[in-house]
Design goal:
Belongs to the MoaB/Mog family. The radius of gyration is 16 Å and the shape is globular. The protein has helices spanning 25-28, 36-47, 63-76, 96-103, 109-119, 152-160, 178-184, and strands spanning 16-23, 52-59, 81-85, 106-107, 133-138, 141-148, 161-163, 169-172. The strands form two sheets. A six-stranded mixed β-sheet has the order 2-1-3-6-5-4, with helices on both faces. It has a two-stranded antiparallel ribbon with strand order 7-8. It has a single domain (16-202), classed as MoaB/Mog-like domain (Molybdenum Cofactor Biosythetic Enzyme, Chain A), CATH 3.40.980. Helix 5 crosses helix 6. Helix content is 31%, strand content 21%. It is built from seven helices and eight strands, in the order βααβαβαβαββαββα. The protein is α/β, with parallel strands linked by helices. The longest helix is centred in the N-terminal third of the chain and has 14 residues, at 63-76. The chain binds adenosine-5'-triphosphate and the ligand Nc1nc2c(c(=O)[nH]1)N[C@H]1C(S)=C(S)[C@@H](COP(=O)(O)O)O[C@H]1N2. The ligand Nc1nc2c(c(=O)[nH]1)N[C@H]1C(S)=C(S)[C@@H](COP(=O)(O)O)O[C@H]1N2 is lined by residues 86-89, 94, 119, 122-123, 125-126, 128-129, 149-151, 154, 157-158.
Length: 211
Amino acid sequence: MPSPTTNSISSGGEVLVVGLVSVSDRASAGIYEDKGIPALADWLAGAITTPYRLETRLIADERALIEQTLTELVDRQRCHLVLTTGGTGPARRDVTPEATLAVGTREMPGFGEQMRQISLQFVPTAILSRQLAVIREIDGHAALIMNLPGQPKAIKETLEGLKDADGKQLVAGIFAAVPYCVDLIGGPYIDTNPAVCKAFRPKSAQRPPAA
Ligand SMILES: Nc1ncnc2c1ncn2[C@@H]1O[C@H](COP(=O)(O)OP(=O)(O)OP(=O)(O)O)[C@@H](O)[C@H]1O
Ligand SMILES: Nc1nc2c(c(=O)[nH]1)N[C@H]1C(S)=C(S)[C@@H](COP(=O)(O)O)O[C@H]1N2
């Protein structure tokens, strides 16, 4: 990992920018239709109530290309949050975690741990997933980058967690912790739809809902 740079980040009035990266040899070659980006975009559209802009990329499982894409999304497009899908398993071409670690300045191990906890409620093979999250810090800007599994249905499962038939949360999804993480790294304040994902912030960090 490169060493962290000190940043003087300003968050005033910035629009949230979210990068979505689908990493799939076959979807990027047109062998099947990519369902990763639509699944990510649909879930975010229901979950985030603050205005945001999406930057989407569909790429093959090539480590250099993944690193280049993540770097471009954070450094040039100024994404505050980047979600990848695919390439986290144990197969030789699954290299998304390696590429993500290489561009990160700090690891956020809780996200990977929680994703595996959630996914184990759905499939025993969740243990095969090497998902992780990092923060990439550059001068004046930082972003949270998180790896999600490649199965399109696993995107909602990991972001939202597990609820019972009445909507009661049984296992917390990872997105509940994302808005406060983005606050802490200097990004815009993210409001969510609590029916989909109730963002958790300590009382001292909460703002009244926008009028
Ligand atoms: N972007 C995607 N769009 C649609 N389906 C996908 C996508 N990525 C994965 N899947 C589905 O999930 C299954 C397991 O995902 P995995 O990431 O292991 O794919 P893979 O076997 O590495 O192949 P590829 O990289 O070509 O998607 C795939 O076989 C496919 O059915
Ligand atoms: N929630 C959830 N997580 C899941 C799965 C799933 O179906 N649901 N599939 C698992 C499987 S089979 C694998 S191999 C790993 C890695 O998947 P990837 O290589 O597509 O990222 O994610 C795991 N995580």
